[in-house]
Amino acid sequence: MYQALYRKWRPAYWEDVVSQPHITTTLRNQIKEGKTAHAYLFTGSRGTGKTTCARIFAKAINCKDPKDGSPCGECEMCRLFENESLVDIIEIDAASNTGVDDIRELRESTAYTPETCKYKVYIIDEVHMLSTSAFNALLKILEEPPEYVKFVLATTEIHKVPVTIVSRCQRFDFRRILPEDIKSRLLYIADNEDFTLTDSAAELVAKLADGGMRDALSLLDQCIAYSKDVDLDTVSSAAGIAERDYLFKLLECFADKDAVTAIDIIGQLYDRSKDMQRLVDELISQMRNVMLAKSIKSDSAFVCLPDEIERIRRIAEKLDTQRILQMLDILQNCSERLLRVTAKRVEIEMCVVRLCGNDVGSAKNAVVSNVSDGEITALRNRIAALEKALKNGVAKQNTLVKEEPLVPQEHAPIAEPKVDVSKLKPEDFSPLADWKDILDELAQRDAATAGFLAGSSAFVYENVLLLVVDNDFFLKMFKETKCAAMLSQILTERYGKQFAIRVRSAKNVVPGEDSPVNKLLKRAKDSDVAVEIK
Fold first, then answer.
1. What's the predicted TM-score (pTM) here?
2. Which candidate, 242, 244, 190, places its Cα nearest to that of 216?
3. Which of 121-125, 449-453, 528-532 has the highest mean pLDDT?
4. Domains of the chain, with CATH numbers?
């Protein structure tokens, strides 16, 4: 029976593990000195050797004649292990055994001593999939296991593992395998199998694997099924990256702002049952290549066919770095939204219009592009927390706002409110009729600053001006920049009096008709209630 390459060539000794010397050296030294821990936590992306190292560890600590901390491969225990006949080495898939009852059964089994081995080893793969109650059940036995029990937990999502579990394990972080290491391993395997593999083909497979050895071997298996002589054409055909001219046509449309042609290409791909999520992921990959082409001269980091590099560089010449980064951001946002929406074609068409539109590179996007990675991460975490709160249900807001006064960076006449703002209700406010004219005036003075108010609405009550901005990020930046001071100055010049300014985010509200902000936005759509300040 044919055996897949990734199973046939799974490393059996520490020496065979690729790109993880910081882990293999430590583990073999612990085994050699007899100082192994009772619990380990292996974390890293898929295909980097977590389960493989767990298996080698289990075999080595039970080997009757270990060689320099590595299993001998010849003793009875090693042979039984290779035949999967050792009942004392238990591999558990947490993805299909998530419940507390499964862990309780595991915990009860630890009371029995090993049948044939020195140690009973529990390898729990994808441990982050366990339920909260299952983690709690695991915690006690993980804290004080019998001396003959060892645990090796493996996960691709360490952030989902409770801190109480992590703190009771020795943690090892597996790195993505370097492309050159994957390439060397593939060529070594090809030399020992009945197929040929060119150097350039091995390099392309290594890049497409994205740091995972298992993915590389699976792709190589596909190539062998296509042809026993694996070259660049074989890889491109087997991996489905040949005949992808549509990707570069779309990128050229984005660069040329040709939305009509781009929408037509999307329609053709949709009619041919092209997966929209996969299409966006492919566009992100190629936009990454465009970004690299704009930034570096070397072609080594590109993930594409050699004959595509020149086309990528021509596209890069049409774009500046800022616009490339903004396009990548738009594509990333689209990729995330496609996971939640049902009308995927509409979503990607909206994305294409944005990519081809004149607003890419405008003040609004220029503002966002200046935000640090840390601020973006913090913002995404906050949004995720808000979405979770909304999903679980949160208390309704009975009052309109209870905001802290703005503290602008530049001095400007910002008044105190004449009323208690926290007691005001949506019906007390009226939309400001000439808000659009005020935004235009603000944009003339400072387009970048005006970008924070894109999509906003304004409401007034006596000397209180209430703004509803488009999102949490615009709320944060409005408060931290000179936007408030400039707006206050324009209002004073325009109406001859000072305003107390308050601001809310349209995203940070309870959904539904009872939401104060939603009531305000509904009033904004009714032009009959808009007021002019005289």
1. 0.57
2. 190
3. 121-125
4. 5-173 (3.40.50.300), 179-238 (1.10.8.60), 245-361 (1.20.272.10), 397-529 (3.30.300.180)
